[in-house]
Design goal:
Order of helices and strands: HHHHHHHHHHHHHHHHHHHHHHHHH
Oligomer: single chain
Shape: globular
Radius of gyration: 24 Å
Strand content: under 5%
Structural class: mainly alpha
Distance between the termini: 81 Å
Number of strands: 0
Number of helices: 25
């Protein structure tokens, strides 16, 4: 029955023989093959449809048609949801006006995405891990809502009402229908993203020599950044090598440490707690390479097309991380919950920050986690993960603000602090995301009971015992400190 359901949810059956030979679901085979074809098309796109050789109109049309073809190949008629969601949202933008369209688009796109996720989970196949059409819809939802808020910032708000970063991302004119669909459905990002800003995408399509983001990264726009068009070849090869290693690690190690063993009755009854902690870390560690593979490949595709250039390093080497979705070493060596989140699914974190955290007047942390849970889907495990994440985040913030300063006196103390916080961060992350993998309430609560809800209780006690000043007060103190900085410096020089 499950096989029939997966087949019914699949696009083209052309690759069915390959699927049977390598014993992988057809939709996963279709996805990987389409991404590899997208990589090849991206190279051709950069070489033969370079902005110096063709018009933005041609680049928009080709990018959009290829994207729609890949979507149809992978998901069949389910790909029409991409066009439906995008088309209705564009109508809302036109009819609602710039004053209110950002709110209406956010509500509509989340509702449409939620409807598709609920029907997929509870009507088609609960627990289907293979590729599904709601994955690309999640990225399109980010793009539509980001664009709506950026149009609102650029056309409905005064300059003094928006932050410097919002000014850079603000859209000053309504995109045409072709530009809009090209942004949402281009072949480079329709299957796995990542999300990017509309201004960055249009600058890439039109071949604008000035990347507006460089002014934020480096303070001044370097001459060679604005004139040169560096080759992405080395970066693409490096990222493809990362993809290959990630895939090999996932295929060889994932089955050795199944996450489900964490809730096995015999394992819980016979394994010492310290061994359970180690196994939890290893089992969750082996789930990450599949994300490393998908997101790094998606990044490589965009880079191969010439998209993602982000200026130069201090040593003059080009940076291709404008739309990168993760930093693997920073994730694995993270010494705080915040550092982990800042380097994991980066573009989604940017979206949550720009759409929710920066704009929510009350409890922005809780609101951001709730929005993230709604966006991820209908599985109850997602909500357990993000509710746990709120508690862990508050505790981590409290420890950082109250405890960390005592360990900065010497490098030895700092090293001890980093080791302790690395271990605690990794265990807290694993503990938090177990329901995200198990999906259901019963198994997730069984795992938490086996740990006696210890991390929940400990984090709540820390958050209560180590208070942190509200965000608006911290920002006000930072602003006052910046204003007083020059005077302080002058006094120091005078002495």
């Amino acid at each position: 029955m499950a096989t029939e359901t997966i087949s019914a949810c699949t696009g083209s059956s052309l690759l069915q023989p390959i699927s049977e030979i390598i014993n992988l679901p057809l939709d996963q085979v279709n996805f990987v093959v389409c991404q590899l074809c997208a990589l090849l098309m991206a190279c051709c796109f950069r070489l033969y449809l370079h902005p110096s050789k063709t018009s933005p109109l041609v680049r928009h049309v080709v990018a959009t048609l290829l994207g729609i073809y890949f979507a149809l190949f992978c998901f069949g008629w389910y790909a029409l949801h991409f066009l439906m969601q995008s088309g209705i949202a564009y109508g809302i933008m036109i009819l609602a006006g710039v004053q209110h369209m950002h709110r209406y688009c956010l509500v509509f796109t989340l509702a449409y995405l939620g409807f598709c996720q609920i029907t997929r989970v509870y009507v088609f196949d609960y627990g289907m891990y293979s590729a599904d059409f709601t994955g690309p819809m999640m990225v399109i939802t980010q793009k539509i809502t980001s664009m709506a808020f950026e149009i609102h910032d650029g056309m409905a708000r005064k300059e003094e009402q928006i932050t410097p970063s919002q000014k850079l991302l603000a859209i000053r004119r309504m995109p045409s229908l072709l530009e809009y669909f090209s942004y949402n459905c281009n072949f480079m990002g329709i299957l796995a993203g990542p999300t990017c800003s509309y201004n960055d995408y249009i600058a890439f399509i039109e071949g604008k020599p000035c990347r507006h983001r460089d002014q934020v990264s480096h303070g001044t726009l370097q001459g060679k950044t604005s004139l040169n068009d560096p080759s992405p070849s080395k970066e693409v090869v490096r990222k493809l090598a990362t993809c290959l290693i990630s895939l090999l690690v996932f295929l060889s190690v994932c089955k050795v440490f199944p996450v489900e063993r964490n809730i096995d009755d015999d394992f819980i009854a016979t394994t010492p707690f310290y061994a359970q902690v180690v196994y939890l870390y290893l089992s969750m560690l082996t789930t990450r390479p599949k994300y490393y593979f998908v997101w790094t490949l998606a990044d490589a595709i965009n880079n191969a097309a010439g998209f993602g250039f982000n200026g130069y390093d201090s040593d003059g080497s080009p940076r291709w991380d404008l739309i990168s979705n993760l930093r693997i070493m920073n994730i694995e060596l993270a010494t705080s919950f915040k550092v982990f989140l800042d380097n994991w699914n980066i573009q989604t974190a940017h979206w949550l920050k720009r759409v929710c955290y920066e704009r929510c007047p009350y409890n922005p942390t809780a609101a951001t986690f709730i929005l993230s849970a709604m966006w991820h889907g209908a599985y109850p495990g997602y909500y357990l993960t993000f509710l746990t994440g709120i508690v862990v985040t508050l505790a981590a913030r409290a420890v950082r603000h109250n405890v960390r300063p005592y360990f900065l006196g010497s490098s030895a103390h700092k090293l001890v602090y980093d080791i302790i916080t690395w271990a605690s961060t990794q265990i807290a992350i694993c503990y938090t995301v177990v329901p995200f993998v198990l999906l259901s309430v019963g198994p997730s609560l069984k795992f938490y009971r086996s740990w006696y809800f210890s991390v929940h209780i400990g984090c709540m006690l820390l958050a209560i015992a180590l208070p942190v000043k509200p965000r608006h007060l911290r920002l006000r103190e930072q602003q006052l400190g910046l204003q007083q900085g020059p005077t302080h410096s002058q006094k120091h020089k005078a002495t």
